[in-house]
Design brief:
CATH superfamily of the largest domain: HAD superfamily/HAD-like
Radius of gyration: 17 Å
Strand order of the largest sheet: 3-2-1-4-5-6
Order of helices and strands: EHHHHHEHEHEHEHE
Number of helices: 9
Number of domains: 2
CATH topology of the largest domain: Rossmann fold
Helix content: 25-40%
Strand content: 5-15%
Number of strands: 6
Structural class: alpha/beta
Largest sheet: 6 strands, parallel
Shape: globular
Length: 222
């Protein structure tokens, strides 16, 4: 159910939250179609059949978990990464509706703001510059900044340490099952936004603290 509140209330899941951290792809960027195209091209290069049903069933922001589920040999992962970045350079996903508005609202609320993404830093920085967000975040954690990947809590906990904010005073907003699992494992308030990489039914099974129809629904919780 969409969380819609005209103003902050004592029951808001963000009460007492000092920092809001976001996922990038599928949450702030409308990247689903672009990622499907790129993964289809990558897997085709290795003779692996790609279709939307398999993509949705096996997707993980941890590319290596996804490659393994799709049957890509471990020895081919490095080349797959190279091809992914090559093909993605031709893509330019736009910001999701309401993304600029909600990022500005979080900043105006006086909270710290962070980005925790599984994307390669060079690619992420290009996307942030294109969106006009390159100076917005107080911390940006990308793939490789810590050894572990989503849904392990380490990337999120690393970001919180950089901010000096304990998990009990932080929230994470993502769009995938692994985002929710990471947030729960890190013991932060975890919210999921629909319309990204994981369908409603899969997100509902993970029981995030809030399930948002759109990013704009977050504004009423601040």
């Amino acid at each position: 159910m969409s969380q819609r509140h005209p103003r902050p209330t004592s029951t808001s899941p963000l009460r007492g939250v000092r920092a809001v951290l976001f996922d990038l792809d599928g949450t702030l960027l409308d990247a689903l179609a672009a990622h499907r195209r790129v993964f289809a091209r990558v897997l085709d290069a290795f003779g692996i059949t790609f279709d939307d049903e398999r993509f949705q069933r096996h997707y993980s922001p941890n590319w290596y978990a996804f490659y393994e589920r799709m049957g890509l040999r471990r020895d081919d992962w490095a080349e797959a990464d190279r091809l992914w970045l090559q093909f993605y350079a031709e893509e330019a996903p736009a910001a999701r509706e309401g993304a600029d508005e909600i990022l500005a609202a979080v900043r105006a609320s006086g909270r710290r703001i962070g980005l925790i993404t599984a994307g390669d830093r060079s690619r992420v920085e290009r996307d942030l510059r294109r969106a006009g967000w390159d100076r917005l975040f107080d911390v940006v954690v990308c793939a490789g900044d810590v050894p572990e990947r989503k849904p392990h809590p380490a990337p999120l906990l690393h970001g919180l340490r950089q901010l000096g904010v304990p998990p009990a005073q932080a929230a994470y907003v993502g769009d995938s099952v692994d985002d929710v699992k990471m947030g729960r494992a890190a013991a932060v308030t975890t919210l999921a936004v629909l319309g990204g990489f994981s369908p409603r039914e899969a997100l509902e099974r993970e029981a995030p603290r809030g399930l948002l129809e759109s990013l704009r629904d977050l504004a009423g919780l601040l």
